[in-house]
């Protein structure tokens, strides 16, 4: 009788230990913090790898495509406003090689980099992140991708309009301005307000490649 009692006690203890270990592992996963600095470090590492690839005569394109997809995936994995705010708070244009512009109201940001996929018709990549309905959405923006170097915010019809100034390559002077606004939870193109309207510049970053 005593032996059976001891056996049952050991079995019960084993189940409790298994349950505790399982819960602890689950909790550790849930409390895992988003590493904003690590995200930028990883993007920079990939960007350096990308620009070390020799794509002359359209060679090594598979490798270039793979790295660009990894970078896209990292950025599009930012889904919570807390993670987005983390990126905004730690970004330093003098420290990181990736270009990241953020609007004054911290509702909208855009990554830009040169892809080395010219042979495939994709010289520049843009990915915008913006806040909508308590989450973060992504957009590749409309029209031809540009190397964006400045973002300004103006008010038009009680809405914030984000004006992105960019250029078609890192060697050219800024020549294109596009307007975007967040409407009904979506990022849409907007008319560009007249110059007489006041604007506030918040971020200015130059892509280094």
Description:
By secondary structure, this protein is an alpha+beta fold. It has one domain. Helices cover 34% and strands 32% of the residues. It is built from four helices and nine strands, in the order ααααβββββββββ. The chain has helices at 2-30, 36-51, 61-76, 81-90; strands at 99-102, 108-117, 122-132, 135-139, 147-156, 159-167, 176-183, 186-189, 200-204. Strands 8-7-6-5-9 form a five-stranded antiparallel sheet, with no helix packed on it. Strand 1 and strand 2 form a beta hairpin. Helix 2 runs antiparallel to helix 3 (61-76) and helix 2 (36-51) packs across helix 4 (81-90). The chain is globular, with a radius of gyration of 24 Å. It starts with a helix and ends in a 5-residue tail after the last strand. Residues 6-10, 12-18, 20-31 and 196-209 have low confidence and may be disordered.
Mean pLDDT: 82
* N-to-C series of helices and strands: HHHHEEEEEEEEE
Q: Give a count of the beta strands, DSSP E runs of length 2 or more.
A: 9
Major sheet size, sense and barrel closure: 5 strands, antiparallel
| Class based on secondary structure composition and strand pairing | alpha+beta
What is the overall shape?
globular
Total individual domains: 1
- What percent of the residues sit in helical stretches (DSSP H or I)? 25-40%
Strand order of the largest sheet: 8-7-6-5-9
Q: What distance separates the N and C termini?
A: 78 Å
Content of β-strand: 25-35%
Low-confidence stretches at least 5 residues in length (pLDDT < 50)? 6-10, 12-18, 20-31, 196-209
Q: State the helix count.
A: 4
Q: Compute the gyration radius: what is it?
A: 24 Å
